[in-house]
Please model this.
Amino acid sequence: MQDDYIFTGSKNEVTSATTWTETSHTYGAETLSDTGEDNSVSVVAMGAGIILTSLGLAAKRRRKEN
Model:
């Protein structure tokens, strides 16, 4: 992490508002690592399918008992 960036701008003495010269204070774009979010979506979908199947089987068993 770089922490030596210097902001430049001007301050309006009447309104105390600061206008910065730069529009961004980043050094450059950083690429984030792949966190496997695609995998987590499929795991959630599979879990929901298992839960729905379990509920369906439990309802079928209850109807059979009655």
In short: The beta strands are 9-11, 18-20.
